[in-house]
Structures are given as structure tokens and as C-alpha cells.
Amino acid sequence: MKEKRILLVIGGGIAAYKCLDLVRRLREESASVRAVMTRAATQFITPLSVGALTNEKVLTDLFDLDDEHEIGHIRLSREADLLIVAPATADLLAKMAGGHADDLASTVLMATNKPVLAAPAMNPRMWLNPATQRNVAQLKADGIRFVGPNTGEMAERDEAGPGRLAEVPEIIAAARKVLAEGGTVMPLRRPLTGRHVLVTSGPTHEPIDPVRYLANRSSGKQGHAIARAAAQLGARVTLITGPVALPDPPGAHVVRIATAEEMLRGVQQSLPADVAVFAAAVADWRPAAVPSEKIKKGSAKPALELVENPDILTAIAKEPAQRPALVIGFAAETDDVIAHATAKRKAKGADWIVANDVSPQSGVFGGDDNTVHLVTRSGVEDWPAMSKDAVAERLMLRAAEHLRKTTAAAE
């Protein structure tokens, strides 16, 4: 964080008081901090307190002629290396998602071309409200990074759940990661325009009886992030997803399935495609027979006979008529990650394999970060640890460049 310039946008929530500690910690790491406060934020902490810690004038009014003459909201938004929005209230997130610019904070966020990190904080019901979740999904698709919210007790009595502002060390760690990844709020190029990208995501549920099923721990976060990134880069996106608790990526056509056989049919019906990314964690087996009634407990243990599910990656990679120009598979491994991924790419006929370690200690299943290795015919690339959104954007940019070179070579 040394010599980095941070613009802190403070929203109007009770958690605003934590920004005083956030400023202090950022200054301790030799970052310079300038603050913009919403009018509501000044009801919780004073500009005087914030200014004493930043050693800079705190800005609050879009129409302050002196401030606008001296600084200007456009220059203010461009001079920072990173914008942090904390607390990012439901109202502020809605303004950001809707493109509003009716105060200094929202105008600065609209005018910036630098990375933005949002740290949401609000009542749990406000966070879980479908409108907030739609706004968050849109902002993630636009390239906004997020840290938190955490789960716990709220300031209000008898209120608990997701909505607590991330702790200051978490926000600083996320800021370091965003600065290391680089990037802007929104990609300046849309290199997948005119392309069809097909993505599979999430787990499959293979029924044992009417109420039970076989599944795995996949959250679908990486697959959904890839679909968002592809749409953001201009592609027409088809997302075929198993059961997940995630909002639909903006701009994607979503096909919901439950089983591996349904996913294969969905993929086949969605062809042709220029790029197919198989990020879903498809169950390898399913019960050979599924009774029509719930299996009851008894003296005898039920026998569960399993049969193999269709191999969707192999079926499409070796599709004779409608094989996509670029087929990308995923290898979720717990040991010998690169060796297994290399063998998988050759055996299944994929062009690329994205390999990652999903052992419990990695935190990949259900987490927001990933560390992957890209296995191609040319060799193995070890990517640094980054957010799943950053992995998705990097992968789709690589796919776009591959298609460009392939098309140029064919002409």
C-alpha cells in the first residue's frame, strides 16, 4: 500500500465509525487517503474527525464552488489508485447500480476509471432483499469488487445475520489484492462481441429417492463469474446451471437443470457456440434406480447401486459436427493437481483445462478466491491467487485473444 492513493467514500450507516480506524490503518501502511462523505454519513461521524485522520480536507458537497474549483469531481475520481466504498449502504449500492449521480459520492463513483472496492453494511433483511441482490449482481458484472458483508449481531437489538461491515483488516487485505490485480471499473474493450459463450456452473443433484440426492460442495461462484465476465466482454452468454443460491448473471440466458443428464441435454441444445466452458462440478455417478417413494429406515441397510453419468466435457470436445472452437474444462483436484489436469486434457480432448486445488484447507468450494493453473497444449501457466471474478475476467480475455488469433490465421 506504500504511496498508494486511496479515495474513501463513506456511506451513511452506523458502521461509518469504523472508517476512522480504516483511515488510521491505511495511513500506517503509508497510503494517502482522501475522503468523500455522503450527507447521511455526516450524521454518524463528523468531517472534522475524518479530516484529522486523513490530514486532507473532507469533501461532502457536489455544488461547493470552492471545492469544485480547487479539485473537481472528475479529477478527484481519477487521481486515486483505488476507491473504497465503506460502508456501502443499500441506497449507495442502488445508486451505483442504477448509474445515479445526484451527490458528490455517486458522481465520483460514476466518473472514475479506477478500481472500486465496496464493503457493504446494512440490516440483514436489506442485504437479502432481492433488489439489493440484483444491484450487487449488476455491480459485480460491471467490475466492482466486494469485501463482505460478514454475518453476526447488528447494532439493532435482536437483529442478526449477513450485513455486518467487514473488519478493517479484511478491507485492507481486499484492497491490497485489488491493487495487485489492477484493472478498471469497467473493461474498455468488448472483444467477445458477436461470440456465443456457453458456460456450465454449479453442482448436479442426482436423486436417490423423491427427497434425497447425491451432490457435491460446488457453490457455482466460479462458473457464474465466468458467465458474468463473458457478458461484460460483449458475448452472448448461455449459462446452464445446477441448483445454486446465486443471482443470475446480468445479460446471460440461464437454463436451470438438476441432473447430469439434464445438463448434457441443455448443452447440446445450446450449440453451436464459439467457446464452451465446463465449470460445473458434475456428479460422476447416479443411482441406477430411483424408487417413487421415500426409502424408510429399517433393519436392512438399503443397497445403492451406482452407474456412471455422461461425460459432458468429452461429449462436446469430441462432438464431430458442432464442436466449439475453444473447449475449456475444469479439473477440481485434491492431490497431484497439475498431473491429473494434464492427463484429463488429453483424455477428454479439451483445448484448455483450468486446474485448482479443492481440498478442504484450500477454501475454494464456496469461497470467493481461487488459485488456478491453466493447462494447454503448450504447457502450464501458474496464475497467482486472485478473486474468482478476476480469474473469470482473465480467462475470458485469454479466450477472446485465442479466437482472434485463430480467426486471423484462417483468413
Rg, Å, rounded = 24 Å
Q: How is the main sheet built?
A: 8 strands, mixed
Output the number of helix runs: 14
State the end-to-end distance: 47 Å
Shape estimate? globular
The name of the CATH superfamily of the largest domain reads: CoaB-like
Structural class determined from secondary elements: alpha/beta
- Order of the strands making up the biggest sheet: 12-11-8-13-16-17-19-20
**Uncertain spans, ≥5 residues at pLDDT below 50?**
184-188
CATH architecture annotation of the largest domain: 3-Layer(aba) Sandwich
What's a concise summary of this model?
35% of the residues lie in helices and 23% in strands. The protein has helices spanning 18-28, 47-54, 65-70, 73-79, 90-98, 104-111, 124-128, 130-141, 168-181, 221-232, 260-270, 312-317, 337-348, 388-410, and strands at residues 5-10, 32-37, 82-88, 116-120, 145-146, 150-153, 160-164, 196-201, 206-207, 213-214, 236-241, 252-256, 275-278, 285-287, 306-308, 326-333, 352-357, 369-370, 372-376, 379-382, 386-387. Helix 4 packs across helix 6 (104-111).
Question: What would you say this structure looks like, in words?
Answer:
With 411 residues, this protein is α/β, with parallel strands linked by helices. The chain folds into two domains: 5-181, Flavin prenyltransferase-like (Rossmann fold, 3-Layer(aba) Sandwich), CATH 3.40.50; 196-410, Rossmann fold. 35% of the residues lie in helices and 23% in strands. The protein has 14 helices and 21 strands. The strands form six sheets. The protein has an eight-stranded mixed beta sheet, with helices on both faces. Helix 13 (337-348) links the parallel strand 16 and strand 17 (352-357). The radius of gyration is 24 Å and the shape is globular. The two termini are 47 Å apart.
